[in-house]
């Protein structure tokens, strides 16, 4: 070493700065391993704040600060540095050991005004759930390193954080500014880290962190969810289960108790598990509805009372247990849905039959005695807003005939009757008046026109309708494009298989009444059809 003592100055808290270069003198050949030197700090660097390296070009030792020094802890540091060659010393036999060359370095740490320091830098504060707003939950203070106390320091909460707490500017006291509740969406995590600033007189700041942790509280009392029960003659115990919105330890295990003294003497509760119990009658009790108040206590001591309604009944006749219990109410609702479905299906079936009947009569090849009764079977399709009985037959005078997409209109005073070509082909003429109903059907198929009328009961009607039917037949015959004829042929839908009657068209094959026995075995949906076409 050129010198045995060095003194340097460095500001506190600075890191990775070179503070000293230490030259050495070596008489060995330069730039050889014998002259290359290695420095070592052999004392005063227990905290490893310093490091020394060798500059290969100059063979100087370079002393650096690698960790911030603290003026308040130590104002100066004294290091002892040793130097060696990379190559071991070659000792002449019987000579003295070469003494190691050392040098001491005194490092003076210079004071810097620093911001206040929180102790600890992270403070955890546990808060019970649902405490009142403004509850003091702790104190968080910082010290100014220069003064060693908290005087003159003011505290703030850095903006843009969870808005749960406030800190007193002077005292550092921490209070809640909201009701902390883990059920609130933003508090579901149950904790939040909040950065707090401390500012000293000179405006230097230091930061610390408060970790607020919401401890679950006993907010809810347990309740029995299902309260309506039926108990039959077999007296099978009822399982009561309570629920509590809290987490452990403010939830299960629950303690159940019948709070009504009279009922407690006739009913008993036996434990099933932490959550549920069995409720059963103690001795012989009469059938009837029992309203049993049951209190449930959670592990935190919070009590909730629920009324359990037990319908103790014979269950031999189901109606006996009806009406007062939830299950049965639900059952009847289900039944209601099926009833509605059945009604809809029934309506559709009725419509189907109606269409089929129209089709059957419309074919006109059914040489059955279709009496005037046939008109009573759903065949009157009329938009009539009829005056009814008082309108006499002779009042019906054709005033106006319009052709509108195959439909005719007949006006009879205030009474309007429609003759309509319905669906894709069957012509239905319906006239209603004075309680008399008549049906006229016209069909054209494959160029052949067949006209069939159900038997007219009244000659007046015959006189009136005959010329009109003739006109209609004439119109049908005029249709040479077959388009209309096709329509007539497709007068009803195929209704599936399985019927003994096969199809409605089979009616045309039956010329004798005796051969129609199959009508007795028709499926229900064809029965009305059969009855409409056959007067039995
Ligand atoms: Ca310091
Ligand atoms: Ca300082
Ligand atoms: Ca300061
Ligand atoms: Ca609870």
UniProtKB/TrEMBL annotation:
One of its GO terms (molecular function) is calcium ion binding. CDD domains: Cadherin_repeat. Residues 2-118, 119-224 form the Cadherin domain. SUPFAM superfamilies: Cadherin-like (SSF49313). SMART domains: CA. Keywords: Calcium, Cell adhesion, Cell junction, Cell membrane, Glycoprotein, Membrane, Repeat, Transmembrane, Transmembrane helix. The keyword Metal-binding does not apply. It is found in: Cell junction, Desmosome; Cell membrane. One of its GO terms (cellular component) is desmosome. InterPro entries: Cadherin-domain_protein, Cadherin-like_dom, Cadherin-like_sf, Cadherin_Y-type_LIR, Catenin-bd_sf, Desmosomal_cadherin. The chain crosses the membrane at residues 335-357. PANTHER family: DESMOCOLLIN-2, DESMOGLEIN FAMILY MEMBER. A component of desmosome cell-cell junctions which are required for positive regulation of cellular adhesion. Involved in the interaction of plaque proteins and intermediate filaments mediating cell-cell adhesion. This is Desmocollin-1. It comes from Columba livia (Rock dove). The lineage of its organism: Eukaryota, Metazoa, Chordata, Craniata, Vertebrata.
